Amino acid sequence: MVQLASVEADISSDPFNFHFANSPIDLSVNAGIPITANITLEGDIGELGFDIALHGSISVMDQEIVSASGIVSTKGMGICGGLAE
Questions:
Q1: Per-residue pLDDT reduced to its tens digit, 8-46
Q2: Is residue 23 part of a domain?
Q3: Is residue 84 part of a domain?
Q4: What is the domain range of residue 68?
Q5: Number of structural domains found in the chain
Q6: pLDDT of 2 above 60
Q7: Are 48 and 15 a contacting pair, CB within 8 Å?
Q8: Is residue 43 included in any domain, yes or no?
Q9: What is the DSSP letter of 84?
Q10: 67 vs 37: CA distance, rounded Å
């Protein structure tokens, strides 16, 4: 089952800027145990440049086991991740 929870978008004209946020995509699979993946995308695209951020995680039985975040922008890019201990 895939659910798109919500999408928010704002557009301004001076200077031009398109902002989007709060758009989690949830994917749930039950293969004997519940497994959930979550992806969130947020960013700005405009006259002064762009930045797009992405966060994702995978949980098993409501315990997050792996996560990753990244950003790409006109200034550069970065990524980080985590594993359950």
A1: 777 777 778 888 776 667 777 777 788 888 888 888 888
A2: yes
A3: no
A4: 2-79
A5: 1
A6: no
A7: yes
A8: yes
A9: -
A10: 10
